[in-house]
Amino acid sequence: MSVLKNAAASLKKGNFIVVYDSDGREGEADLIFCAKCASPRAVSIMREKAGGLLCLATSPEVAQKIGLPFMSDLLLSDERLAEIIYNKTKYGDKPAFSISINHRESKTGISDDDRSRTLTEFGKIVSMPKTAWRRSFVKAFRTPGHVNLLIGRGIENRRGHTEMALEIARIAGIPPAMALCEITGTRRQMTRDAAKKIARENGWVFLEGKDFFGE
Amino acid sequence: MSVLKNAAASLKKGNFIVVYDSDGREGEADLIFCAKCASPRAVSIMREKAGGLLCLATSPEVAQKIGLPFMSDLLLSDERLAEIIYNKTKYGDKPAFSISINHRESKTGISDDDRSRTLTEFGKIVSMPKTAWRRSFVKAFRTPGHVNLLIGRGIENRRGHTEMALEIARIAGIPPAMALCEITGTRRQMTRDAAKKIARENGWVFLEGKDFFGE
């Protein structure tokens, strides 16, 4: 079985996977799992073992059908911000950020229970027929909130964690709703080898950019 | 010395403080410190001991002079989002969220080094004469990023952590740029007593809403 199919099978069982991009891009490892498989315990593992921003990646199709904008486009509506909007980040890509959301039953939005509900309920909506996405989303979510949505730009256009996570979801045959969190090392991002070690210690599959794109 | 003056003095020395709102509002404790006093070590303490979103609170005056919008106003520019924008959160207030930022020297934006630079450089700008705020901010920051700005609505209008943090800064005579992170307990927000215990164990001053507003 290929390394990607192996990772997809593990993800489908509800396990975390670790995805490192490459030394030449962000040089960053993210802890990734299926949003629908979230639980309060999974959220606490994300904050304790990863420590970055807990985000929720979805596909261009979901974003288009629900009506989710890229944050960088939304920011353009305020001319005072024109000079500070990222054209490209330091690693050369446009940011994947969309809006941030809370499930409407959230209290503070940030607790393990609240973020877990936000992840699982979004995952459930994306598992429904496409015609129900927009209506169900609008009923269930509020913005701004405590989970950042990310929109993939297609793995042929951008080699980011967002796109790699969605590609694994596609291979696994699960809906395009993936939880992502950057693994922050001491001071700097965790190196490839340190991220690989953490994956091994926790029994998580480790993937990197070259598994998707070749050397 | 009053409890608020004591907390202000501790903050001014570069210490963390813990601020709990009240059982009747969010029921949430935040770990708070002066943005200009940030360091990579301080950011790692925020993510390990608090675990929420690392945010940066500033005053209405700074927001107005720099040109920072409330996120909920910015979201209004996209009519597809009209139905999901928070009118009021579950605890009855409008959200304090503004835009998210990275210092332009950030690599990924999320590492301890990057978030620390974002906090300290924002703190430095707000310490300058007001006439330099906008120009310096536009030169130094990019959006969207990995530190969420929060804008206070004035402590007479909103009894949130944002407003309480800014009030302590005012008492301490330090510029209105405060780092905040929610202390997430297991599954739910940490209770008042648990937050008070953590403050005591770490030598941090503990404050709560009633210290600001009376019983």
What does this structure look like?
Two copies of one chain form a homodimer. In chain A, 40% of the residues lie in helices and 20% in strands. Chain A has 215 residues and is an alpha/beta fold. Chain A has one domain (3-78, 89-207): Alpha-Beta Complex (DHBP synthase), CATH 3.90.870.10. In chain A, strands 4-5-3-6-2-1-7 form a seven-stranded mixed sheet, with helices on both faces. The first copy, chain A, starts with a helix and ends with a helix. The interface between A and B is large, with 54 and 54 residues.
Which key terms come to mind for this protein?
homodimer, 215 residues, seven-stranded mixed beta sheet, 9 helices, globular
Helix residue percentage of chain A? 40-55%
Residue share in β-strands of chain A: 15-25%
CATH topology of chain A: DHBP synthase
Order of helices and strands of chain A: HEEHEHHEHHEHEHEH
DSSP summary, beta strand count of chain A: 7
What is the quaternary state of this protein? homodimer
For the record, give the distance between the C-alpha atoms at the N and C termini of chain A, rounded to a whole number: 19 Å
CATH class of chain A: Alpha Beta
Short description:
Chain A has 215 residues and is an alpha/beta fold.
Helix and strand topology:
Two copies of one chain form a homodimer.
Chain A: H1 3-12, E1 17-20, E2 29-34, H2 40-50, E3 55-58, H3 60-66, H4 71-75, E4 97-103, H5 112-126, H6 130-140, E5 141-151, H7 161-172, E6 177-182, H8 192-202, E7 205-208, H9 209-213
Parallel strand pairs in A: 1-7, 3-5
Antiparallel strand pairs in A: 1-2, 2-6, 3-6, 4-5
